[in-house]
Every structure is written in structure tokens, then in C-alpha cells.
Amino acid sequence: MNLNIEILRVLDVTNGSYPEPALLHELRLVLPPTITTAEFDSAIRALQDQRFITGIKPELGGPVRWKITDEGKGALNSALR
Length: 81
Prior knowledge:
This protein has about 80 residues and is α+β, with helices and mostly antiparallel strands. It has one domain: Arc Repressor Mutant, subunit A. Helix content is about 60%, strand content about 10%.
């Protein structure tokens, strides 16, 4: 499985914003072997640079919440065909 595709898939299934720690935990359950934090951070940065995901920083603090964009949904659909 591809880490970037799995991130998009999880965010698409949740249909809303997903807190970063929970997203990393979810990915560690579905991707063998366990992904590292560095791999996760790199994938998040790449997806954000491509505008496939967007991060929402809560005003009162707490973890970033990630959300898939329309471009990300299109990329996910193309990858799953």
C-alpha cells in the first residue's frame, strides 16, 4: 500500500477533519510495517504541497486537523482506478 494514498483514503472516509495523532494511529494499523513519524511527516508535507490536503490549526491549541481537498479526492479516485 502507498502511504500517500492511504492518507487520502482515511481522510476521504472520515469526510471531515481528522486530528493528526489519530490519523497517524489509523495509518499504523493498516500499513505494514509500522510507518515512522518521519515518513508520516514527509508524506503530509508532500500532500500539502500538492494541495491534496489542508491543515486546520485550532485557535485554542491542540493538534492540527487534516482534511482532504477536492484535488485530493480527484487524485485518490484516479489512483484507485
